[in-house]
Amino acid sequence: MSAALDHLAARVATDPLFLASALAEYARSEGLDDDGLATTLGCAQTDLTRLRLCGVPRSDPEQFRTDVAVIAERFAIDTNTLGAIVRRGQSLARLRAAQPGAVQPGFLLAARDDDREPPPPDEETAS
Amino acid sequence: MPDSWPEADVVAAIYERLVRGDCLAQTDFIVEVLEPLVSHLWAWRRDADEHMWLTAAEDAVLSVIRNPAVYNPAKCGNLFAFLRMAAERDLLNLLERERRHHRNRENRDCVELPVDGRNPSVEEVADDLPTFDDQAMATEVASLTDLERQVFELMRDGEKRTSVFATILDIGHLPVEERAREVKRVKDRIIKRLQRAGGKS
Fold first, then answer.
1. Which letter does DSSP use for residue A125 in this model?
2. Which end of chain B, N or C, is less packed with Cβ atoms under 10 Å?
């Protein structure tokens, strides 16, 4: 896979428009590196970049199933496995976004006293 | 990096899928256009660096993915040509930002116009826009619009290609003659303003 594609896949790792975001959340929660994620998905590691650049499945349950099936077929991945990973990743992303003072993945919040009222949680966006 | 450009009809077909919300279209679109775009920018402006080529190409591609309507097939023609133009513009903006950064560090703007009393052509002035530190001229330069400023910087750099100026001015879609006329008009206007400020012509 080319360096340009890898670069872009890394850039969109927090962009909910891309599957990269759900996969990154899932991998982080499971402590998986690329090898581990590819093994869990049952695909070649070299396919990960293209997989990450796919659009995120539509949120309507029927459309979600259809989209996951299409992606799974393209990359020869088990549909149920992919669907479960994407759902889990998306849930984690939503939880992260709903946390007061949500930060980008990879950053740690230092414990601190803060008298301010926490902002209301973000509205959950359809994804 | 591959230097072959994607087939227009292939890219157009993927674009149609993108518009329809096909979840595989994003990855297919990126795989099809990103590398050729980076290669094009690399060949076009070697004075930029790898980060700039990648960023400009990615920005152009992502703009279409996030909002496919930015590309209007009826108005903009070939999608890859559209992407190329958008990426060139992004790259020029990045270069301009970089230049501005360096300029700010030096904390001065310097230009000097010819002093032989005649009215030089655009090309002559563009060939040699040396340095000066006249306050009126500096003020005039500072008052240029962002676009004029970019054109002016290109002139200072000795850029002569109409296509480059046309990209900056976002008039790449115009016929060649009209494009050249518009580029000349903008350059002339800038030069006249600088001449007036310097009072040398």
1. P
2. N
**Domain of A15, in residue numbers:** 3-98
The Cα–Cα gap between B200 and B179 comes to 29
Kindly state whether residues B77 and B149 are assigned to the same domain.
no
Q: Residue A40 is inside which H or E element, if any?
A: helix A34-41
**Largest alpha-carbon pair distance within chain A?**
51
Q: For residue A44, is it within any domain? A: yes
B130 with B40, same domain: the answer is no
| Among B88, B107, B126, residue at a domain's last position | B107
Q: Residue A5 is nearest to which of B24, B31, B65, comparing CB atoms?
A: B31
Among B198, B189, B200, CA closest to B134: B198
A48 touches chain B (CB under 8 A): no
Beta-carbon separation of B25 and A74 below 8 A: no
- pLDDT digits 0-9 by tens, A9-62: 999 999 999 999 999 999 999 999 999 999 999 999 999 999 999 999 999 999
State which amino acid sits at residue B181. R
Q: What total of structural domains would you count in chain A?
A: 1
Do A22 and A60 meet the contact criterion of CB atoms below 8 Å apart? no
Q: What value does the mean pLDDT of chain A take?
A: 84
Cβ-Cβ contacts under 8 Å, B19 against chain A: none
Is the pTM above the cut of 0.80?
no
ipTM over 0.85: no
Task: Taking residues A58-77, report their average pLDDT.
Answer: 96
> Which residue of B26, B40, B50 to mutate against A (max A Cβ within 10 Å)?
B26
Residues B102 and B112 both lie in one domain: no
Contact A55 B23 (CB under 8 A): yes
Residue A21: inside a domain: yes
Chain A nearest C-alpha distance from B173 (Å): 28
Verify whether the Cβ–Cβ distance A17 to B34 is below 8 Å: no
Range of the domain at B153: 108-201
Q: What does the pLDDT read at residue B45?
A: 93
Interface of A with B in 60-119 (CB under 8 A): 67, 70-71, 74
CA B97 to chain centre: 12
Q: Which of B107, B123, B151 lies at the terminal end of a domain, its last residue?
A: B107
Mean pLDDT per 10-residue segment, chain B (201 residues): 74 94 96 96 93 96 95 85 94 91 69 50 46 56 74 77 82 80 85 69 36
Distance from A28 to chain B by nearest Cα, in Å? 22
